């Protein structure tokens, strides 16, 4: 008798999407093999690199707990001065990667706007350059695992806002 292929256990983020009746597609990209290898997987899946988002945790200048989250294309570079200007803050810094698990509950590479919003309530900002994409991929809370969702539904779910993040 043939064994059934074991389905991977759902992440908390996938459960949140299910609870909110937001359809998604599970995706896997091997970022541990390097950015170039993962981007080849993205292209093989027929997706645009700009629709794959990275989640960056930042610390604002309004105190030691002034955390915020910025999502931008994996191929983009965040401009911290621009983000600070957009948000009316004196400065914005990247959160300490070594402390991410304590700050967000996720390790570096697994941070996701879905879980961070649900469990931490940090404000979520999206790069305005992605506004025209109907769908995007964000981390599903586990390194290499992503979910592809409609951008509009994602932004609504996390109470996100669009700002200028990169040049």
Automatic annotation (TrEMBL):
Entry annotated with the keyword Cell division: no
Enzyme Commission number: 4.2.-.-
Domain YbaK/aminoacyl-tRNA synthetase-associated: 41-156
InterPro entries noted in UniProt: Prolyl-tRNA_editing_YbaK/EbsC, YbaK/aa-tRNA-synt-asso_dom_sf, YbaK/aa-tRNA-synth-assoc-dom
Keyword field contains Protein biosynthesis: yes
Signal peptide start and end residues: none
Protein name, entry field: Cys-tRNA(Pro)/Cys-tRNA(Cys) deacylase
Assigned protein family: Belongs to the prolyl-tRNA editing family. YbaK/EbsC subfamily.
Keywords from the named record: Lyase, Protein biosynthesis
PANTHER family assigned: CYS-TRNA(PRO)_CYS-TRNA(CYS) DEACYLASE YBAK (PTHR30411:SF0), CYTOPLASMIC PROTEIN (PTHR30411)
Species of provenance: Ligilactobacillus pabuli
């Amino acid at each position: 008798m043939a064994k059934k292929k074991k389905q991977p256990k759902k992440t908390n983020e996938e459960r949140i999407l299910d609870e909110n009746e937001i359809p998604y597609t599970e995706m896997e990209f091997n970022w541990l093999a390097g950015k170039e290898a993962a981007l080849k997987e993205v292209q093989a899946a027929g997706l645009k690199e700009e629709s794959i988002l990275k989640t960056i945790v930042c610390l604002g200048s309004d105190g030691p707990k002034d955390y915020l989250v910025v999502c931008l294309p994996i191929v983009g570079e965040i401009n911290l001065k621009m983000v600070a200007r957009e948000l009316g803050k004196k400065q914005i810094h990247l959160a300490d990667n070594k402390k991410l698990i304590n700050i967000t509950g996720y390790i570096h590479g697994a941070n996701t706007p879905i879980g961070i919003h649900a469990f931490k309530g940090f404000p979520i900002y999206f790069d305005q350059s992605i506004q025209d994409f109907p769908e995007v991929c964000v981390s599903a809370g586990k390194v290499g695992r992503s979910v592809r969702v409609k951008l509009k539904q994602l932004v609504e779910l996390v109470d996100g806002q669009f700002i200028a993040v990169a040049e």
